[in-house]
């Protein structure tokens, strides 16, 4: 196992030049780590690299996702479609992907940084971003064969095509293995029949990673992952869902009505789709945990100046100890959640160590804290917290999703408990 190095003690590497020069110079004190979850030759970024990346994303969000874009996306419940190409041009859509298909190969800490900063600007643009760059792009990066990667990743990473992942069904959410969509083997491929529910980016997706039962009698051992293209006959989006939050992150119900999928579009091995699904879920939960971090930071961004400007009883309300108590709670929740997410991501980048209980734990912790922080933000803004002129209600509505999507809080607790059962199984005998 590689030595854990202190990020703060590492000298800065030359400035990152996203897109222009994504390659990193080798730092002499860096360890090469064999991880099957990173591109070949991956070098973990230093603290300086990550700080610089954060500044670049902040420059991007200040320019492209100011508050008026975030508010309009929420009110209109429509994704600003020009954003895909802008995100692509900035290099943010392929954070974990190979450089030869246009990716930056920067790893999961870097992906979390981008996800956090985009979500700080707009929770719903952040959610759609992660559905594309993590759920679709990273699943293709990890499980695609060379031909599939060359065919699909350049367009997805450039932002000229949009990605999604379809696992959930109306009757199979928490119990996703109970899915009923089938894939029947035929000459040259498979015929897919069924529906998928709550699919982020579903209404506009060009490329969808879809799970279906190739051998329905075999339960989890009869699931296969497929790459479905928008133009395939029989594939459609039945409706766009009207949600309480994450408005503008388009969510749809997808229909597969006798869709022929050629065998070249099988992702991973036939009947081994559950491996693709479960391993993908760990990393999905980790990267998505940066979404509630961004929302908590956004709550601080609104609450701190407001409470120092707003005067009651002749003094800024932030000078009252009850208000200070709430601010302290918000701040420490954010910092604790942030440490958990980035520590979990750093262990993956630097040691290739993916702990299921920490991926589930990081999102579970951050999601619940984000709901609490958004409620505190509303409370501290008083009447202004309750009106739509301020972003406080949007933050709450967006934050709540993270207690549901990518497995609910309850399911995350089960996942954590089961991971311990596995680790301690020898104690039972
Ligand atoms: C905005 C949004 C975007 C989404 N994006 C995607 C996407 O891109 N792709 C995709 O595949 N899916 C997506 N989903 C689906 C999401 O993953 C599911 O909604 C989630 O897994 C919960 O499933 P469910 O809605 O069927 O709830 P259910 O499974 O019906 O659960 C209902 C309640 O029962 C609880 N519960 C269920 N089983 C247990 C148990 N064993 N023990 C204790 N409590 C239990 C749950 O925790 C929950 O509180 C999205 C959902 C939303 C809302």
TrEMBL record:
| Cofactors named for this entry | FAD
Every copy of the Acyl-CoA dehydrogenase/oxidase C-terminal domain together lies at 271-419
Pfam families (alphabetical)? Acyl-CoA_dh_1, Acyl-CoA_dh_M, Acyl-CoA_dh_N
Q: What are the Acyl-CoA oxidase/dehydrogenase middle domain coordinates in residue numbering? A: 164-259
Q: Which domain of life is it from?
A: Eukaryota
Indicate the segments forming the Acyl-CoA dehydrogenase/oxidase N-terminal domain, all copies: 51-159
What PROSITE patterns is this protein classified in? Answer: ACYL_COA_DH_1, ACYL_COA_DH_2
Keyword field: FAD, Flavoprotein, Oxidoreductase
Mention one GO molecular function. flavin adenine dinucleotide binding
The biological processes this protein is annotated with in GO are: L-leucine catabolic process
Query: Which InterPro entries is this protein grouped with?
Result: Acyl-CoA_DH_CS, Acyl-CoA_Oxase/DH_mid-dom, Acyl-CoA_Oxase/DH_mid-dom_sf, AcylCo_DH-like_C, AcylCo_DH/oxidase_C, AcylCoA_DH/ox_N, AcylCoA_DH/ox_N_sf, AcylCoA_DH/oxidase_NM_dom_sf
Family stated for the protein in its record: Belongs to the acyl-CoA dehydrogenase family.
Q: Which PANTHER family match?
A: ACYL-COA DEHYDROGENASE, ISOVALERYL-COENZYME A DEHYDROGENASE
What name goes with this protein? Acyl-CoA dehydrogenase NM domain-like protein
């Amino acid at each position: 196992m590689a030595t854990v190095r202190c990020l703060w003690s590492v000298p800065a590497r030359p400035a990152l030049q996203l897109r222009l020069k994504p390659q990193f110079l080798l730092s002499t004190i860096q360890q090469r780590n064999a991880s099957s979850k990173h591109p070949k030759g991956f070098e973990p970024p230093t603290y300086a690299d990550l700080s610089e990346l954060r500044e670049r994303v902040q420059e991007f969000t200040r320019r492209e996702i100011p508050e008026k874009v975030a508010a309009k996306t929420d009110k209109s419940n429509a994704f600003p479609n020009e954003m895909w190409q802008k995100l692509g041009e900035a290099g943010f859509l392929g954070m974990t992907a190979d450089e030869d298909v246009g990716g930056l190969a920067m790893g999961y800490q870097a992906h979390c940084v981008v996800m956090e900063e985009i979500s700080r600007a707009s929770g719903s643009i952040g959610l759609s971003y992660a559905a594309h760059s993590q759920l679709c792009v990273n699943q293709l990066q990890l499980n695609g064969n060379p031909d599939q990667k060359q065919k699909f990743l350049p367009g997805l990473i450039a932002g000229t095509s949009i990605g999604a992942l379809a696992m959930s069904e109306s009757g199979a959410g928490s119990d996703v293995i109970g899915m009923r969509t089938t894939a029947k083997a035929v000459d040259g491929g498979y015929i897919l029949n069924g529906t998928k529910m709550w699919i982020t980016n579903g209404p506009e997706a060009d490329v969808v990673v879809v799970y279906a039962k190739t051998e329905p009698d075999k339960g989890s051992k009869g699931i296969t992952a497929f790459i479905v293209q928008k133009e395939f006959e029989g594939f459609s989006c039945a409706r766009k869902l009207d949600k309480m939050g994450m408005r503008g992150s388009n969510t749809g119900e997808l229909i597969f009505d006798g869709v022929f999928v050629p065998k070249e579009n099988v992702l991973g091995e036939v009947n081994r789709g559950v491996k693709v699904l479960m391993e993908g879920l760990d990393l999905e939960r980790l990267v998505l945990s940066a979404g509630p971090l961004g929302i908590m930071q956004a709550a601080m961004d609104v609450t701190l100046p407001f409470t120092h400007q707003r005067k009651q009883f002749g003094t800024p309300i932030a000078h009252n100890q009850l208000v200070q108590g709430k601010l302290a709670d918000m701040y420490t929740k954010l910092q604790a959640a942030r440490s958990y997410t980035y520590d979990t991501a750093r262990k993956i980048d630097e040691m290739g160590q993916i702990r299921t209980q920490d991926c589930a734990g990081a999102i579970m912790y951050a999601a619940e804290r984000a709901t609490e922080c958004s409620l505190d933000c509303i409370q501290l803004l008083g009447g202004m917290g309750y009106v739509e002129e301020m972003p406080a209600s949007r933050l709450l509505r967006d934050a709540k999703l993270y207690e549901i999507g990518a497995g609910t809080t309850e399911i995350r607790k089960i996942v954590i408990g089961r991971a311990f059962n596995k680790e301690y199984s020898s104690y039972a005998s």
